[in-house]
């Protein structure tokens, strides 16, 4: 796992960070490849902070000082530059952000409603929903993808499974609101502590942060696919061994 890069992305520290520390972290994240060749004075100048702020930021991330931080960044960059290593590390990272034991209740509910499951997802999550629908059909579990609120009224005795990476998509929340009005059971595969999770009767969740590149949010789906595979594999093992 990366020593610095994931910390800069997530920023889940034991205490609130100050404005000057945030400025240092922003600079490190935006200039990660330059930092190993810079002095602490140079970083202070370019980040408009002080050496003291940089040292505090280093300790916040678990390093004794700037030299130790630079060494850790070099190790991270070496991992990134090795394509095979990078993909392995990224996959390991995603796996570490999913508690697969939390899939058990969702799997039981899907099986108990195996003739009455709707799925909903938007964007990249819609692709994942289509993948999951096919996998359920292979097991003989009828599954239907819905795309509009009006469709729910024809299936008010069904359960609905929401796939949402962020758990904050407004269309997903609208679907949930309409489903609740119809007294439908709401299941989800989504982000921990999100709005979708809080409004679901049962949720299989992850804790992967939003991936940003040059200010553009990229909806990463690898962990969602891994979670879907866990659900399908457990259904096969526990309820459909002949498959």
UniProtKB/TrEMBL annotation:
Domain HTH rpiR-type: 4-80
Keyword DNA-binding: yes
SIS domain ranges (all copies): 106-238
Claim: RNA-binding is one of the keywords in the record: no
UniProt-listed Pfam families: HTH_6 (PF01418), SIS (PF01380)
InterPro entries: Homeodomain-like_sf, HTH_RpiR, RpiR-like, RpiR-like_SIS, SIS_dom, SIS_dom_sf, WH-like_DNA-bd_sf
Gene3D superfamilies (UniProt xref): Glucose-6-phosphate isomerase like protein, domain 1 (3.40.50.10490), Winged helix-like DNA-binding domain superfamily/Winged helix DNA-binding domain (1.10.10.10)
Keywords annotated in UniProt: DNA-binding, Transcription, Transcription regulation
PANTHER family to which the protein is assigned, alphabetical: GLUCOKINASE (PTHR30514), RPIR-FAMILY TRANSCRIPTIONAL REGULATOR (PTHR30514:SF21)
Name of protein: Transcriptional regulator GenR
Species assigned in the record: Alkalibacterium iburiense
């Amino acid at each position: 796992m990366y020593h610095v890069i994931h910390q800069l992305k997530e920023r889940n520290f034991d205490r609130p960070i100050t404005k000057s520390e945030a400025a240092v972290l922003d600079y490190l994240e935006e200039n990660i490849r330059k930092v190993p060749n810079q002095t602490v004075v140079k970083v202070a100048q370019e980040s408009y902070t002080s050496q003291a702020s940089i040292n505090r930021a280093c300790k916040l991330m678990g390093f004794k000082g700037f030299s130790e931080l630079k060494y850790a960044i070099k190790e991270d960059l070496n991992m990134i530059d090795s394509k095979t290593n990078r993909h392995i590390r990224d996959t390991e990272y995603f796996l570490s952000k999913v508690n697969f034991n939390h899939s058990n209740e969702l799997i039981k509910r899907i099986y108990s409603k195996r003739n009455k499951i709707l799925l909903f997802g938007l964007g990249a999550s819609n692709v994942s929903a289509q993948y999951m629908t096919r996998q359920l059909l292979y097991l003989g579990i009828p599954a239907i993808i819905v795309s509009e609120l009006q469709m729910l009224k024809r299936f008010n005795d069904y359960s609905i499974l929401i796939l949402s990476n962020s758990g904050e998509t407004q269309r997903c929340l609208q679907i949930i609101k309409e489903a609740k009005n119809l007294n439908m059971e709401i299941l989800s595969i989504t982000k921990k502590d999100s709005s979708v999770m809080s409004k679901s009767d049962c949720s299989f969740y992850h804790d992967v942060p939003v991936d940003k590149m040059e200010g553009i949010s990229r909806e990463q789906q690898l962990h969602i696919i891994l979670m879907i595979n866990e659900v399908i594999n457990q259904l096969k093992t526990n309820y459909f061994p002949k498959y």
